[in-house]
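Re: beginner question about structure tokens

> Can someone show what the tokenized structure looks like for a real chain? I only ever see the sequence side.

Sure, here's an example I had lying around. Input first:
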Amino acid sequence: MYLINSTKIDSGIRYVPASFLTLLFCITLWLGVSCSQQRDGEEDKPTGGRDLEYTSEVTFLNSAGEVVSTIEAAVADDEASRSAGLMNVQQLPMDKGMLFIFESQQPRSFWMANTPLALDIIFVDENFEIVRIHQNTQPYSNQSIESEEPAKYVIETNAGYTLRYDIMEEMRVEIQNRPGSGNELQVE
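And the corresponding structure tokens:
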């Protein structure tokens, strides 16, 4: 039965006024938009992860000395930052990475404990030559990842980076401060 202007129509179904449906639609739309908007001052950040400050640039060079690619890198140059590495970092943009700087050159060993990202790990000697690359390392693994050759620097990038840019052992790298980073990078 329909009610149109308070008049019964004998169909057995009740009529819902269009103004009520319009009001219901507007409330639903408003709630959907309100719930999906960010509050002022909030940024898109991965939850539960660490933020990195990219203060260095690492440039990969082919055998002719030509630039193959460059990443911005967070620097780990003391015991605490080297121990933390990329642990608990949930997202790493493809053009970013981490640069580990050690005081001396010696065989190095890394592992992936508490690291949720698959990485390429690049070991570099004191002459800035790549001596070993481990590609697509397994997240959260306790397996030792060895340099096999003495290394003073280690670069971690997203898994697949070295394949994408055809970065190979015996290529060289250049390391420098990012312009305006305010960081005094000590690379010797």
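Each token stands for a local structural state, so reading them left to right follows the chain. DSSP finds three helices and nine strands in the chain.
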